[in-house]
Design a protein that fits this description.
It is built from eleven helices and eight strands. With about 270 residues, the chain is of the alpha/beta class. It has a single domain, classed as Rossmann fold. The protein starts with 14 loop residues before the first helix and ends with a strand.
């Protein structure tokens, strides 16, 4: 699999770099910032939603490591390193945790290899691959060195499945990822939605999607139920992301300011 900075296209916005910009990072280019700014002009709380989503990741990893006893994590669409990455949260609780990061942006891999260092007891690896090709992920030699697929594994799909456009398009990809995993494996999911938007904002977003100004394909609660069909939902089920394993949304946030669902499910 080819990799390296020669593949980085700085003229086209990339979700990982746009997300990095919203989180206050510096590993992004003019095209990423322009794309992010255009989305923010239409939806001023996009940056707020990105920060809230990052907080949800931390709660999900904490639950998996502390309550579910998971020691293996497959983080797909990891994005550029920032604070409290999956392995940092997991290894604070269970230092022997093993984590494989996957992203399709070579810049992410360059930074990940330099910055994401495992605890002495655990292990991390970094794969340049794409959610749209699950077999290339599952068969990758580095994954097989770090993860034992006969043991429960958590598949982290944090703000990434919504880059798979089309009704029902994400379901076969998730099924392919989970098929070889052991019973007791989990999938953790956050996903952009228009369910909480006003009709006017929903219309605006649909226009942005149709004109190529956004690459995030929203899904409603019903389609997420279909996506996770055959798995056992972990309490509290499919909920507003800021409320997952939390008693209430922070006082300064409304559902329409974040616009994402969160859910976790267990493979029987």
């Amino acid at each position: 699999m080819a990799s390296g900075n020669d593949k980085i296209n700085t003229d086209v916005a990339h979700p990982a770099r746009r997300y990095n910009y919203w989180l206050g990072g510096k590993d992004n280019f003019a095209a990423d910032r322009a794309s992010a700014d255009e989305i923010e002009r239409a939806f001023p709380t996009a940056r707020t939603a990105a920060l809230a989503n990052r907080d949800t990741l931390g709660r999900m990893v904490t639950y998996l490591a502390r309550e579910a006893g998971i020691r293996q994590f497959l983080d797909i669409g990891t994005g550029l390193p920032t604070v409290d990455n999956t392995h940092e949260v997991a290894q604070r609780i269970a230092p022997d945790s093993h984590i494989v990061y996957v992203d399709n942006d070579p810049l992410v891999m360059t930074h990940a290899r330099a910055l994401l260092t495992s605890s002495p007891e655990g292990k991390t690896a970094y794969i340049e691959a794409d959610l749209r090709d699950p077999q290339s992920i599952l068969a990758h030699p580095q994954l097989l060195e770090v993860l034992d697929l006969n043991q429960p594994t958590a598949v982290m799909l944090i703000a990434v499945a919504h880059f798979i456009p089309g009704p029902g398009a994400a379901k076969p990809l998730l099924d392919a990822l989970l098929e070889p995993l052991a019973s007791g494996s989990h999938v953790a999911l956050t996903h952009m939605t228009t369910d909480f938007m006003t009709p006017e904002d929903r219309k605006t977003y649909t226009t942005m999607l149709e004109t190529g100004k956004s690459d995030v394909w929203p899904r409603g609660e019903q389609e997420l139920e279909e996506l996770l069909a055959g798995l056992d939902l972990v309490e509290p089920g499919i909920v507003l992301g800021t409320r997952w394993k939390r008693e209430a949304t922070p006082d300064d946030l409304t559902p329409a300011q974040t616009n994402y669902w969160a859910a976790m499910a267990r493979k029987p």
